[in-house]
Write a structure and sequence with these properties.
Layout lengths: L13 H17 L10 H27 L1 H41 L14 H49 L6 H31 L8 E3 L1 H18 L3 E5 L8 E3 L1 H18 L5 E9 L2 E8 L29 H11 L3 E6 L5 E8 L4
Length: 367
């Protein structure tokens, strides 16, 4: 009687072990959890498709050289189909999601902090989506903390600054105060006023960031507004040795739809910047005219102008440039926000003959 060579109890036959290993290898290729690191995600899928395409090309060459034209054509067609399918797959799984993430990143860069992108798949693009979303959330939190801090500090500063300004102005009415004492009180009053203006700019900025900024729209006569502002501000500038030259428009300017108080704030901020940074020029020119579908307001000083490296950034909040003068760094940022909410444009440049040139374009109301 022939004896069978049976394995000991608990051990699998060699054939069964080999079959199990083969099944495990095949299963690992289709299971993302058991797949080797090099074959996981997008890089693994791209590697597999590239290998299959290269194998088909190689077989097509071998058939063409040794075995027959028909087989070569079949494998060449299969290789072409694989490469076309891989390009379509790459566009759908890689290019399109990256373009969507680029749009989200642009929104975040434009100030829409907290914007989240949709996570489509559990791959490298999904990991990049999670990283961008995490960055957006953290930037949003940091921005809120910054705005809350600015608002809180600004409110706390208003009360002591009001007291300092009030008492310094009261002391100036005392005729017994003379010499260095009077000069010191004048400096205190002037610096307290400057700090008060900076605090108001900071509060205005936080109101814009928090969505508490509103416009009361009505028909605005830009020519009359400019004439009033220049008449009021020219006397203040004269004390600093600066001449304000206002050139009325040659013809009648059309009205624009806007908030007169906010537009006046824009012009005053621009004039304040011109007097601060263009002090060496001793004159500021203001004009208005119609430019296509816009009413153009221009303010030019005769100072040193704005450095080329600063021009792209002067409208950014808290950017102070390389000049000697120092302020809050948000005056032009507030102006740009107000003009943008009027559907207009704020253009900062240097005049061809020297000095800074600020242009405000306000759209004319369509009847």
């Amino acid at each position: 009687m022939e004896e069978k060579n049976t394995p000991p109890l608990g051990e699998k036959p060699p054939e069964a072990g080999r079959a199990a290993r083969s099944a495990r290898i095949i299963r690992s290729l289709f299971s993302s959890d058991e797949r080797p690191e090099t074959l996981r995600g997008l890089k693994g899928a791209w590697l597999v498709m590239s290998c299959f395409g290269a194998l088909c090309v190689l077989l097509a060459l071998l058939f063409a050289l040794f075995w027959g034209v028909i087989g070569a054509c079949v494998f060449a067609a299969l290789a072409a189909a694989i490469f076309l399918a891989s390009n379509f797959w790459f566009r759908e799984r890689v290019t399109s999601p990256i373009l969507g993430l680029s749009d989200t990143a642009r929104h975040i860069a434009d100030g829409s902090y907290g914007t989240l992108a949709e996570r489509l798949r559990n791959d490298e693009i999904g990991a990049l989506t999670d990283a961008i979303n995490d960055m957006s959330v953290k930037i949003g939190k940091a921005d809120r903390v910054q705005n809350e801090f600015i608002s809180s500090v600004s409110h706390e500063l208003r009360t002591p600054l009001t007291a300092i300004t009030g008492w310094s102005e009261t002391l100036l009415y005392d005729d017994a105060l003379q010499g260095d004492s009077r000069r010191g009180i004048e400096i205190i009053s002037r610096e307290a006023g400057r700090l008060t203006g900076m605090v108001e700019e900071l509060l205005e900025f936080t109101r814009m960031r928090d969505g508490r900024f509103t416009l009361n729209l009505e028909q605005v006569d830009v020519a009359a507004l400019l004439e009033e502002v220049c008449f009021t501000y020219s006397e203040l500038l004269r004390h600093d040795g600066i001449e304000l030259k206002y050139t009325p428009p040659s013809g009648e300017l059309p009205f624009v739809t806007g908030d007169p108080r906010r537009l006046k704030q824009v012009v005053l901020n621009i004039l304040d910047n011109a007097s601060k940074y263009g002090r060496g020029g001793r004159s500021i020119e203001v004009g208005a005219a119609r430019q296509g579908e816009y009413v153009r307001i221009s303010v030019r000083d005769h100072g040193p102008g704005i450095a080329k490296e600063d021009l792209p950034h002067v409208k950014e909040r808290f950017y102070k440039g390389r000049g000697k003068e120092r302020g809050s760094g948000i005056g032009l940022a507030v102006c740009d926000e107000i003009v943008t909410r009027h559907s207009g444009k704020l253009i900062v440049d240097n005049a061809p003959a020297g000095g800074a040139l600020i242009t405000v374009l306000l759209p004319i109301e369509t009847q």
